[in-house]
Amino acid sequence: MRRFCSLVLILIFSAVFAGCGDKGGKSDKDLFVIGFSQVGSESDWRLANTRSMEQTFTESRGYELRMENAKQRQDNQLAAVRNFILEGVDLIIIAPTVEDGWETVLTEIKNAGIPVIILDRSVSVSNADLFLTNFGSDFLKQGNEAVKWMEDQHFDTAQRNLRILHLQGSYGATAQLLRTKALEVGVAQHKDWEFAAQLDGDFTEAKGYEVVKDYLRQNRDFDVLYSENDNMTFGAMCAFDEAGITYGENGRVKIITFDATKKALQYCLDGKIDLCVECNPMHGPGVEELIRKYRAGEEIPKHVYVDESVYTRKDLTKEIIEEREY
Ligand code: GZL
Questions:
Q1: What pLDDT score was predicted for residue 7?
Q2: How far is the CA of 187 from the centre of ligand 1 (A)?
Q3: Is 114 within 8 Å of 84 (Cβ atoms)?
């Protein structure tokens, strides 16, 4: 009787999961199969990050990259990752939309015996053993670089405080949390700095334009735009243009932006943006090196930070911008 029940269960399981994940886990060409849950395609930075991963993990280099675009929704990521488990991929890479909500699914992946790399942003979990490594940027350092630049400008606050318009990225994303933390600590440490407003631009150009345009209907009284990514900055610049607000080196409002994509660097060279804080999206080669080390049984660090810099107009030339990968 027990054998009969086991046979029935196997038949039911096979029937239920037969349609799930139209790919088997193992590649039929003996490739190393990577399931990659990407945040979305919300910004130029993200497109460059996806391009770097796709250019690195190619079949000719022995990989099958299965990337799922979550369209900036964590529930899409959780579904994609659970499908990767069912497919039995060799490794999972997650670029998390937000930090919270990962404990359960990372435990499921661990129980399935599949290694996980957290890419770009971070996850907030009780046990760091739930992932191999977190490969990305030091976002707090990025924010602190911007605050230091503001300090070095020695803005004239004799008559009134320095007023900062803060355009924030997707709430709960590590890049937003830490770029915001750096600025909020900076404002707390400078009694002559204050927030004009903190607006949610969700890391997109459209939302950046929309929220700044709406803000400008009733408010014009600010001196600095601290924008947590280039695409929101581009949207804000468009709203400033429509409102007749000047900005950049010879304008009334100084602009700080994060990512330092080619388009932002060109605006910086043109004197339209004052500070570009680099956030390097070209993660592919560094992640592949970590995977090679892991597969060779070598120890890999829990956090790996990419090299990044900051740029003002005097640091840039047309040639430097043309040579950049993103
Ligand atoms: C930063 C990354 C952020 C970028 C934005 O590593 O998570 O998300 O700064 C992107 O452009 O949307």
A1: 53
A2: 23
A3: yes
Which residue has tokens 């707390």? Answer: 188
Which residues are CB-neighbours of 110 under 8 A, at least 6 positions away? 116, 129, 130
CB distance 43 to ligand 1 below 6 Å = yes
pTM: 0.91
Domains of the chain: 26-136+281-295 (3.40.50.2300), 139-279+312-322 (3.40.50.2300)
Distance, CA 49 to ligand 1 centroid (Å)? Answer: 9
Q: Alpha-carbon dihedral of residues 228, 147, 175, 47, nearest 10 degrees?
A: 50
User: pLDDT, tens digit, for every residue of 81-121?
Assistant: 999 999 999 999 999 999 999 999 999 999 999 999 999 99
- Write out the H or E segment, with its range, that includes residue 290: helix 284-295
Length of the chain: 326
Identify the pLDDT of residue 29: 76
Q: Give CA–CA dist 128/276, Å, rounded.
A: 32
- How far are the Cα atoms of 16, 96, 130, 146 from residue 125, in angstroms, in the given order? 32, 12, 8, 29
Instruction: Please report the pLDDT score of residue 8 as a whole number.
Output: 52
- What is the chain's alpha carbon radius of gyration, rounded to the nearest angstrom? 23
> What residues in the chain have per-residue pLDDT under 70?
1-28
